[in-house]
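Help needed: design a sequence for this.
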């Protein structure tokens, strides 16, 4: 067997020889087994790319409309016309190919199959096909593209084709076809990676799982916490039914609280990592798995936090049109008129509320900027320095503004005993814990002596006692 193609890179030079050369030459057709959805879409794309296409079908005469220019034959006849065969048939039906062993000998078979669920079979479909037909060179690939995508022309997100197989030449042949079709090929190594490729279409937002679990967990916790502290407490203590507050007031407390905690959770792992590197005196030791996982989901945490902050803004905007609020204002005004009372203008209160709103608006503005710059299309246009300036420096400023917004909201409320219903702190107080810790730790990291030390470590410096330790171990 010739040498393997390096993972993640596919050379696009023309093939040197062998069966694969014939497979991609303009004269020789590409064969597709199966005239179903994928087979037809793939055939159409191949024809548009100037390949000749022949189909192998159980019913070559009555297999339904095929792309213009393609011909259908029996499996045996079609296999003899091509060296490269796309197997667009479900795995359950692969056994029919066992009867074609002689016609398929030495051919490149592309296994495009997927399964309805993970671990359905003990071995990957491509490995099974290779076992059925040891005389063929099986390449796994194209399974992450849908028939629809192929028919409509791949968009940016679906331009990638993963390939794996034991023969470098066979992979090269398939890679050339894919490249001519305008797709980007990613070589994932030998056929043992087939199961991994077959699992890709079955993934359900894998990188969102943990952030979503954290969000739902925090939302549920704070919802019930505030429900008990506010609605149930009012009912039990004062006999008042204020359950209507669940819809807007409670929601408008839960969303910003969780949003602020999640924003700070985006920056906490970075701070922990910095302290860990300082403690270890090197950046060359791996972080614990939990920290790695946490760091990898910061973008999703941030986007979910932004979504909650956005909901908080929307809920805040509807406050003036709420029946409850309009009733309270009218009632207050009428009471004052009746009792011939006036209330003094409170300058401190004016400062406090204006600062609270203003800081909140600025924080939200930067929040949006962070969200926009995390989109691949935007972040790709930024240099590393620009990206890290926005995500790290402006990110911490955003956290600072949003935390300040919450402190201004609280003001001196924490001094009032009535705030501690059933001896529990208010929700906003709890929401300030993590961001305050993160900002304090960040402030420590910004101290010149600490900053110098962490910068040196990140440039590759290692503490000397580590060197001595290593020498001793050696
Ligand atoms: P499909 O529409 O059901 O077509 C499957 C074809 O297989 C049939 O049209 C038939 O072609 C052939 N076939 C059916 N029973 C057979 C048997 N007993 N023996 C031999 N051949 C038989 O399925 P599809 O959507 O094209 O999917 C084909 C493969 O591609 C599957 O493995 C699937 O997982 C994979 N895939 C599909 C998509 C997609 O978007 N559809 C995307 C990625 C991967 P003839 O009647 O001409 O023999």
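Sure. Designed sequence:
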């Amino acid at each position: 067997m010739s040498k393997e193609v390096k993972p993640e890179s596919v050379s696009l030079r023309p093939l040197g020889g062998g069966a694969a050369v014939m497979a991609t030459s303009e004269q020789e057709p590409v064969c597709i087994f199966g005239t179903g959805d994928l087979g037809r879409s793939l055939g159409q794309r191949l024809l548009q790319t100037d390949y000749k296409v022949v189909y192998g079908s159980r019913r070559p005469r009555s297999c339904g409309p095929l792309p213009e220019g393609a011909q259908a034959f029996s499996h045996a006849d079609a296999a003899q016309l091509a060296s490269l065969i796309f197997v667009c048939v479900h795995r359950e039906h692969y056994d029919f190919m066992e009867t074609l062993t002689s016609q398929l000998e030495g051919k490149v078979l592309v296994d495009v199959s997927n399964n309805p669920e993970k671990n359905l079979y003990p071995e990957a479909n491509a490995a099974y096909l290779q076992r059925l037909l040891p005389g063929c060179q099986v390449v796994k690939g194209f399974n992450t593209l849908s028939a629809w995508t192929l028919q409509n022309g791949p968009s940016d997100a679906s331009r990638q084709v993963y390939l794996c197989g034991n023969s470098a030449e066979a992979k090269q042949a398939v890679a050339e076809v894919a490249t001519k079709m305008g797709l980007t090929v990613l070589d994932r190594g030998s056929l043992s990676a087939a199961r991994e490729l077959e699992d890709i279409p079955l993934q359900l937002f894998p990188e969102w799982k943990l952030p979503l679990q954290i969000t739902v967990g925090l939302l549920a916790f704070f919802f019930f916490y505030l429900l008990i502290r506010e609605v149930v407490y009012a009912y039990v203590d004062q006999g008042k039914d204020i359950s209507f507050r669940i819809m807007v007031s409670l929601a408008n407390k839960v969303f910003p609280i969780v949003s602020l905690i999640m924003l700070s959770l985006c920056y906490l792992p970075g701070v922990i990592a910095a302290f860990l590197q300082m403690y270890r005196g090197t950046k060359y030791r791996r972080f614990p798995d939990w920290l790695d996982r946490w760091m990898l989901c910061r973008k999703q945490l941030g986007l979910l936090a932004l979504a909650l902050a956005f909901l908080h803004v929307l809920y805040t905007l509807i406050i003036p049109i709420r029946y409850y609020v309009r009733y309270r204002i009218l009632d207050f005004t009428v009471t004052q008129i009746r009792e011939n009372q006036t209330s003094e203008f409170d300058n401190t209160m004016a400062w406090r509320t204006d600062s609270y709103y203003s800081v909140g608006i600025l924080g939200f503005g930067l929040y949006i900027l962070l969200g926009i710059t995390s989109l691949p299309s935007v972040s790709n246009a930024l240099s590393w320095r620009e990206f890290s300036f926005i995500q790290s420096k402006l990110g911490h400023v955003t956290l600072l503004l949003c935390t300040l917004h919450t402190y201004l909201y609280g003001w001196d409320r924490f001094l009032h005993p009535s705030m501690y219903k059933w001896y529990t702190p208010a929700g906003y107080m709890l929401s300030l814990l993590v961001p305050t810790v993160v900002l304090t730790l960040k402030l420590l990291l910004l101290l010149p002596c600490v900053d110098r030390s962490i910068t040196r470590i990140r440039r590759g410096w290692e503490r000397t006692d580590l060197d001595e330790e290593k020498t001793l171990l050696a």
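The chain has a mean pLDDT of 91.
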